Automatic annotation (TrEMBL):
This is Forkhead-associated protein.
């Protein structure tokens, strides 16, 4: 998991891309996200080198 390798908390990762902490946690638990949220999460993963 890119967030874990970067040693970021869910709150830090969420703040980095303007998402809610609970959304990051939900996606990590494999719950669905909207297309917009998915795009932002992909941007976060790319920024973290994942």
């Amino acid at each position: 998991m890119a967030r874990g390798r970067a040693k970021l908390s869910t709150q830090e990762a969420a703040n980095g891309v303007g998402l809610r902490k609970d959304l990051i946690e939900a996606v990590e638990a494999e719950e669905p996200a909207t297309e917009s949220e998915t795009a932002q999460i992909k941007d976060l993963i790319a920024a973290l080198g994942g």
